[in-house]
């Protein structure tokens, strides 16, 4: 099932990949793809044990979401995409690949009362792939998705911000989330921003399956006072 949400002038495509199993009231899982990808990237096996509903967002300029005229992409724009989704589906655990991992980290710090854990995985974008590889990530056009905007590929392949920027959001999540460990780093690659976050948080590195299990079970309460 697909829903369309409005983020400014952008029409976002939000795909519900699975409904809740009927025996649980668990919160949703929101999947964020890497640079040049779409909701089609996520395999069913990666979320098969999640007890609640599962959603996947096509970022601005990707998949079935609007391609803006003239580019102007930033991770903050994509963070606004996710904020729009959270306002629609409510608190959720977020799992992102590459570029999506960076955005998941930012929104975990900016919206600690809505993000029930952020799982960071390897994937393309923000130097999360081999440095020798082309920044363009080809995507096969199908009936369900179109190739990504070349402006997005050019503007989001690397991170112009210092690693301290990502650390700032990681610390916000650690300080203000009711979860004892709101960020799960499940990557092999270490771009500078992610290495800095790993050092600042000093968390053990769980497997993705362990991270899914941790956040699916975690009780979550938030008192803004």
Describe it.
The structure is a single chain. With 225 residues, the chain is an alpha/beta fold. It is 30% helix and 18% strand. The chain contains six helices and seven strands; from the N terminus they run ββββαβαβααβαα. It has a seven-stranded mixed sheet, with helices on both faces. A hairpin with a 2-residue loop joins strand 1 (2-7) and strand 2.
Element layout with pairings:
Elements: E1 2-7, E2 10-18, E3 29-32, E4 54-58, H1 75-89, E5 92-97, H2 99-110, E6 115-121, H3 150-156, H4 163-176, E7 183-186, H5 192-201, H6 208-217
Parallel strand pairs: 3-4, 3-5, 5-6, 6-7
Antiparallel strand pairs: 1-2, 2-4
SSE order, one letter for each helix or strand: EEEEHEHEHHEHH
Could you tell me the strand content as a percent range? 15-25%
Distance separating the two termini: 37 Å
Spans with pLDDT under 50 lasting ≥5 residues? 136-142, 221-225
Order of strands across the main sheet = 1-2-4-3-5-6-7
Mean pLDDT: 86
Broad shape: globular
Number of helical segments with 4 or more residues: 6
Q: Structural class of the secondary elements?
A: alpha/beta
Largest sheet: 7 strands, mixed
Give me the Rg, rounded: 16 Å
- Helix percent band: 25-40%
Number of strands: 7
Note the main attributes of this structure.
disordered C terminus; 7-stranded mixed beta sheet; alpha/beta; about 220 residues
Short recap of the structure:
The chain has 225 residues and is α/β, with parallel strands linked by helices. The chain has helices at 75-89, 99-110, 150-156, 163-176, 192-201, 208-217, and strands at residues 2-7, 10-18, 29-32, 54-58, 92-97, 115-121, 183-186. A 7-stranded mixed beta sheet has the order 1-2-4-3-5-6-7, sandwiched between helices.
């Amino acid at each position: 099932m697909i829903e369309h949400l409005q983020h400014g002038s952008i029409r976002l495509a939000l795909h519900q990949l699975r409904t809740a199993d009927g025996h649980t009231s668990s919160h949703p899982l929101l999947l964020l793809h890497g640079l040049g990808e779409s909701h089609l990237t996520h395999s069913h096996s990666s979320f098969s044990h999640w007890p609640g509903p599962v959603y996947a967002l096509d970022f601005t300029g990707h998949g079935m979401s609007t391609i803006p005229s003239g580019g102007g992409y930033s991770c903050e724009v994509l963070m606004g995409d996710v904020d729009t989704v959270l306002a629609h589906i409510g608190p959720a655990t977020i799992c992102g690949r590459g570029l999506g991992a960076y955005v998941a980290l930012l929104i975990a710090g900016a919206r600690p009362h809505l993000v029930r854990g952020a799982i960071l995985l390897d994937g393309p974008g923000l130097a999360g792939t081999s440095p020798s590889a082309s920044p363009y990530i080809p995507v096969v056009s199908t009936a369900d998705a179109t190739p990504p905007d070349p402006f997005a590929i050019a503007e989001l392949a690397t991170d112009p911000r210092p690693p301290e920027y990502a650390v700032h959001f990681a610390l916000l999540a650690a300080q203000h989330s009711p979860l004892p460990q709101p960020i799960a780093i499940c990557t092999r690659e270490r771009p500078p921003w992610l290495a800095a976050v790993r050092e600042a948080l000093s968390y053990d590195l769980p497997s993705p399956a362990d991270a899914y299990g941790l956040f699916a079970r975690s009780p979550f309460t938030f008192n803004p006072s």
